[in-house]
Design a protein that fits this description.
The protein has twelve helices and 14 strands. It is α/β, with parallel strands linked by helices. β3, α3 and β4 form a beta-alpha-beta unit.
């Protein structure tokens, strides 16, 4: 939370109607102050220099300078937490993936295109994302937040929370992430080698309209196959499966092989897909032969499922606060006393390979 006690927000949208609606929604929360609006990316850059807001909500499709161009310039010259407001079209989803790679903290989907009265339907979600963004770390151009991470500054006793787990099989890797997760996974997954010997399952909190583009983007940049999950999809070495938005993803064994199973059960801890559901199913089917990884994200999703895995002998890694965009989910796991190692993001790929391959 900013020192002033109120989060100062700049609202950017080419529609005067949308600027008014978004501003009205944000003003309903006493923690938020809308300090200005902008009609396009060029106007936004000028307003950022003049108003110095804490948070920016940025429409994607705008004339003169679009939201992606404006975001890239902001990240280059005056980094701020930016929440992209995107349509749910295929094109909108692809642009949003580019925005996440460029450094936006989070995004929110417009329910019905670029101008929508239904924006009120996502009002509470927008407010929560602004509140969360106010605590987020901003990614610098050099890859981590304000520069490369100096891992030598991390006190060793905090890097390893408990003694190393006994050597044993790791038959699957299960990963959870939320806010900041798309950027984290975009760094992590390309570093997994093409001959990786076990399957990977991933729950990233993301709406259903965006997970296909996200999986494709990861697949294009990774050495292993990355796909969106569906009922009956087999788990196999060298394949990573992303939980589809709007469904919980479970792992099941049928006829000796492991497959994906989707559930339309209600959200857990207000999220769907939920990492807890995935982790619990992995615990049921794989016992303790699991490497569990909890990356950046708000809230505590994943802790209960990781606790069940830990009780069966799984090894648990949490991302360090130093590289988390939001240190929520990893902190909850650390506070629960179930984490074996706390590592900065840039060390996690090597740790995954080391623990799975045993070297």
């Amino acid at each position: 939370m900013p020192i002033s006690g109120r989060i100062r927000v700049l609202v950017v949208d080419d529609s005067a109607l949308m600027r008014q609606f978004i501003s009205d929604i944000l003003k309903t929360d006493p923690r938020i102050e809308v300090v200005g609006t902008a009609r396009d990316g060029k106007d936004a850059l000028a307003q950022v220099r003049t108003l110095n807001p804490d948070i920016i909500t940025m429409d994607v499709e705008m004339p003169v300078m679009d939201g992606l161009q404006a975001l890239e310039e902001i990240m280059k010259t005056n980094p701020k937490p930016v929440i992209m407001v995107s349509s749910v079209t295929k094109e909108g989803a692809e642009v949003t993936m580019k925005a996440l790679a460029a450094g936006c903290v989070d995004f929110i989907a417009k329910p019905s295109g670029s101008i929508s009265l239904n924006i009120r339907d996502i009002g509470q979600e927008l407010i929560e994302k602004v509140i969360t963004a106010s605590t987020a770390k901003i990614r610098g151009r050099s890859g981590f937040f304000g520069g490369n991470i100096n891992t030598s500054s991390i006190n060793p006793e905090f890097r390893r929370m408990t003694p190393p787990a006994a050597s044993g099989r790791r038959d699957i890797v299960a990963i959870a992430s939320s806010t900041g997760g798309p950027m984290a996974l975009s760094e992590l997954m390309p570093k997994i080698p093409k001959n990786f010997p076990v399957p990977i399952v991933i729950t990233q909190h993301m709406p259903k309209e965006f997970t296909p583009s996200f999986a494709k983007r990861l697949n294009d940049s990774s050495q292993i196959e990355v796909v969106e999950g569906f009922d009956g999809l087999s788990l196999k070495p060298g394949r990573a499966i992303i939980a589809p938005g709007g469904y919980h993803m479970l792992v099941k064994r049928r006829a000796g092989s492991a497959i994906c199973s989707l559930s339309d059960a209600p959200p857990v801890l207000s999220v769907k897909p939920a990492a807890n559901i995935m982790f619990l199913s992995v615990a049921d089917e794989f016992g303790g032969n699991v490497l569990c990884v909890i990356l950046t994200g708000m809230g505590r999703d994943g802790t209960d499922g990781a606790t069940a895995l830990k009780r069966k002998g799984a090894y648990v890694i949490a991302e360090s606060q130093k590289t988390c965009v939001v240190y929520g989910m990893p902190k909850a796991a650390v506070d629960a006393g179930i984490v074996d190692e706390v590592l900065p993001l840039n060390e996690i790929p090597d740790a995954i390979v080391r623990l799975v391959k045993g070297n």
